[in-house]
Write a structure and sequence with these properties.
about 230 residues; mainly alpha; about 80% helix; about 0% strand
């Protein structure tokens, strides 16, 4: 049942024009611009830019997209109708998570193909570590999206989710421009930075234990808060 619900969520996301723009087109365009123009400084190479773009993509699908879609589902009673059809609450939530993972899989394929064309060559062993890091990062941002979208009104979420997305993306860009992903320091406490630096270390063949610890901590915090305050209606 969870897989079937996940397929439904994935199809809805892939049919949503704004979702495709935010999750696929913008990250791919940002990758091309950042890799071909020195907008993030001359020292920022493709090995730093790709992890940043993947982190932005995960933030878009897991957090912003889920928060907004969930808030409007609550507003128009879609969640209540789904629950009334006999689908348990935990299946609805799990289906949304599976839908996000499906979207992220599409993102990874698109971004990876573009990155390879631009000269990105990760360590083979690092690809597996990066996949683990990305899954944990997606879980973290999905939990955050479920928390915001499941607690606040649709009008508030629409503005706040995009604002938080801009802040998370801006912090990653600032860290890359000012310090480099290998010297993020205390900025690793920010989940988007932790994911970007963790992916950079992973692609280089290192295990990002610090960043994974930060992401897991945020995931647990967001998950517990969502469990406590999540509502299926307004």
């Amino acid at each position: 049942m969870a897989i079937a619900q996940g397929r439904i969520e994935a199809r809805l996301m892939l049919r949503h024009g704004e979702q495709l723009l935010l999750s696929l087109i913008i990250p791919a365009a940002m990758l091309c611009v950042a890799a071909t123009m020195p907008v993030l400084g001359d020292s920022s190479g493709i090995d730093d830019i790709v992890p940043m773009i993947l982190a932005i993509a995960a933030t878009s699908s897991g957090f912003t997209g889920q928060a907004i879609s969930l808030a409007f589902d609550r507003r128009y009673g879609a969640l209540k109708r789904t629950g009334a059809s006999g689908v348990p609450a935990h299946i609805i939530i799990l289906g949304k998570i599976l839908g996000v993972l499906a979207m992220v899989a599409v993102q990874v394929v698109v971004i990876t193909l573009v990155a390879l064309l631009l000269g990105f060559r990760p360590e083979p062993v690092g690809v597996t570590i990066a996949a683990l890091t990305l899954v944990i990062g997606v879980a973290t941002f999905t939990a955050a999206g479920l928390l915001m979208g499941g607690c606040l009104s649709a009008e508030i979420v629409l503005g706040l989710a995009n604002l938080v997305w801009l802040v998370l993306v801006g912090v990653v860009g600032f860290v890359l421009y000012a310090y480099g992903l290998d010297d993020a320091g205390f900025f690793n406490l920010v989940p988007s930075v932790a994911l970007a630096t963790g992916l950079a270390d992973s692609f280089a063949g290192s295990f990002p234990s610090l960043q994974l610890g930060v992401l897991v901590a945020w995931a647990v915090l967001f998950g517990l808060a969502a469990r406590r305050w999540f509502r299926f209606d307004n």
